[in-house]
């Protein structure tokens, strides 16, 4: 059943652009997660795959990215069954590898996708007053609890203004998880992006909301 759904939903006509294929696949996974209340879907899949790799080839690296992308793992990922998991898990893993290169990158893309989709479906701009302010100097401040900050910011990661916590989460996924291969962060992303941060931002004359420039956890 799941194989057919994946083929129909995640793999549209071959003339579609790669980005369309990826977006449709992420939408399919998002629907599965919400319909089945399976928020740990990726964590379960990745952890089980790591166990399989380490069982067949002990003494692998503890680094998640190096383990999943190793030459040996390429002979296992999407091929060797995922023990105790339903067959659709490996079908999804196969499609993730085909579209994103590996399951970790797909997981990171999904986390970004889910945040952006929530913003699109429930835009916050109508509840936030934009201020037409122009200041070409950077503003730096300490935010005690970013998860409680209601301001909206412009970022390179989303076309719509988003909350500070979402902005920092997307920044973390792009700059640390994907670029530096710190995929371990995905297991506790929500816990990692909270608390006290120092941020710098700037009001641009072309936008109604401040542009987030930098952020760092304190």
Automatic annotation (TrEMBL):
UniProt-recorded Gene Ontology molecular function terms: N-acyl homoserine lactone synthase activity
Pfam families recorded: AHL_synthase
UniProt key word S-adenosyl-L-methionine: yes
Coiled-coil ranges (or none): none
Domain of life: Bacteria
Claim: S-adenosyl-L-methionine is one of the keywords in the record: yes
InterPro entries: AHL_synthase
UniProt GO BP: quorum sensing
EC number annotated for this UniProt entry: 2.3.1.184
Reaction catalyzed: a fatty acyl-[ACP] + S-adenosyl-L-methionine = an N-acyl-L-homoserine lactone + S-methyl-5'-thioadenosine + holo-[ACP] + H(+)
Keywords attached to this entry: Autoinducer synthesis, Quorum sensing, S-adenosyl-L-methionine
Family: Belongs to the LuxM / VanM family.
Protein name, UniProt field: acyl-homoserine-lactone synthase
Lineage, top ranks: Bacteria, Pseudomonadati, Pseudomonadota, Gammaproteobacteria, Vibrionales
């Amino acid at each position: 059943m799941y194989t057919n759904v994946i083929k129909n939903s995640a793999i549209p006509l071959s003339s579609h652009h790669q980005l369309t294929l990826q977006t449709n696949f992420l939408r399919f996974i998002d629907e599965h997660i919400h319909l089945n209340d399976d928020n740990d879907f990726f964590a379960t899949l990745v952890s089980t795959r790591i166990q399989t790799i380490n069982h067949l080839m002990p003494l692998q690296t503890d680094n998640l990215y190096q383990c999943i992308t190793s030459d040996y793992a390429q002979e296992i990922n999407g091929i060797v069954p995922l023990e105790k998991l339903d067959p659709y898990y490996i079908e999804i893993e196969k499609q993730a590898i085909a579209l994103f290169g590996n399951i970790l990158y797909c997981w990171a893309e999904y986390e970004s996708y889910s945040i952006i989709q929530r913003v699109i479906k429930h835009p916050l701009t109508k509840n936030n007053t934009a201020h037409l302010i122009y200041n070409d100097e950077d503003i730096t401040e300490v935010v005690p609890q970013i998860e409680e900050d209601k301001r909206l910011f412009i970022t390179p990661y989303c076309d719509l203004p988003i909350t500070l916590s979402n902005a920092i989460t997307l920044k973390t996924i792009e700059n640390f998880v994907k670029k530096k291969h710190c995929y371990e962060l995905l297991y506790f992303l929500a816990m990692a992006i909270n608390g006290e941060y120092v941020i710098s931002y700037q009001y641009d004359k072309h936008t109604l909301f401040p542009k987030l420039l930098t952020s760092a956890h304190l």
